[in-house]
Structure prediction request, 144 residues.
Amino acid sequence: MLIERFQTVPYPNWLGLKLAKLSAGQADLSLVISKQHQQYRGIAHGGALASLADTAATFAALTIIPNETDVVTIEFKVNFLASMTGGAAVARGSVVRVGSRVAVSDVRVYGPRKDRLIMTGTFTMLVFPKPGDLTGPSANRNDQ
Prediction:
């Protein structure tokens, strides 16, 4: 079910994220860095890597939260440790804790050399009951 869900989420698919592995409390994703993922100096853009890490954190949490709930990231902190210009970035999201209202995942992102740590991050997510349509007028009060 989560694999199907991943395949239907627009932004990660537009970005080119690939789901490599799912297990209880863990999600591995990859992103092949191409020209559209680079900033002006030719290195991987921090926003692309943060999106990769955020998605890994989210899907790690989704593997263990109750089926009637969902998560949304409410805070994250990342540290960029090295740069990369191309190849595949691999993110491993691991759940630290899931409570009734908050989940926390840690993520490590590696560059093409599997031993080269590019980024680390901690992601906090709100756990909430699955709503109906999030795109309706009540989802964004500014639309009304």
Observations:
- The chain has one domain: 2-130.
